[in-house]
Amino acid sequence: MQLFRSMAAVVVLAAVASAPASALAREEKVVYHVTDSANAMGALGNVRNHLNASPKAKIVVVTHGPGIDFLLEDAKDKNGNPYDAVVQELSNRNVKFKVCNNTLEARKIERKRVLPEATIVPSGVAEVARLQTQEEHAYIKP
């Protein structure tokens, strides 16, 4: 009887240690896709709330088209609030910001106008796809 209990305990421990443990240990990685700066302040609020609920989440904000505008120097929302302070705050919390170079070129925007917290990538769309397929980021479109 003792041997049976010991074997049963080993089977239960093995089952608990396999699937659920690996699922719990997975890193939370998310890409927020911003294509219109009109909703950028809302998107940044979502990112802040996400980090408040899940402080270890790895978050990347990828922008292209009109979505890059909030990551340009002196950008302000419709109420006149500057974006740079919020971007800097989130960058300090390890949020990564990516700006599409195709958009910069098409709109003839100088690279030096991009906030220093942001990285320029060749293509915003390709970066979203890469993060999803190669780095297993969940996709959020605010």
UniProtKB/TrEMBL annotation:
The UniProt keywords, alphabetically, are: Signal
Signal as a keyword? yes
Keyword DNA damage in record: no
Note one Pfam family from the annotation.
DsrE
Q: Which SUPFAM superfamilies match?
A: DsrEFH-like (SSF75169)
- Which residues are in coiled coils? none
Task: Write down the InterPro entries for this protein, in alphabetical order.
Answer: DsrEFH-like (IPR027396), Sulphur_relay_DsrE/F-like (IPR003787)
Q: Would you indicate the residue range of the signal peptide?
A: 1-25
Put simply, this protein is called Uncharacterized protein
Report the source organism.
Answer: Massilia atriviolacea
